[in-house]
Amino acid sequence: MTNIVSRRRHGFAVITCPQPPGGVRVTYEPVESEYVWQSRVNYTCDFGYEYNSGDMVSECLPNKTWTADTPVCTSTMTLQYVLRYC
């Protein structure tokens, strides 16, 4: 687990969040080494998967957590598709 850090920049405390929560078949952008308060990430479903539930945008809050419920993506490929095209 990533450490939650508060440090000072120009005399002000800098609030950082841990890495955003990931999910199965879900990616987020931008990928940063550090996310500060009000940073936002956008989630997308991997190829062959579609959005099912959760939030597709998340923001770093002052309490060092993220706003979103991690999105859930489900497969769009049926067995018939796999047998025909793979």
From TrEMBL:
InterPro entries: Sushi/SCR/CCP_sf, Sushi_SCR_CCP_dom
Domain Sushi: from-to ranges: 15-75
Disulphide-bonded residues: C17-C60
The keyword Lyase is annotated on this UniProt entry: no
Keywords assigned: Disulfide bond, Sushi
Membrane-crossing segments per the record: none
Annotated protein name in UniProt: Sushi domain-containing protein
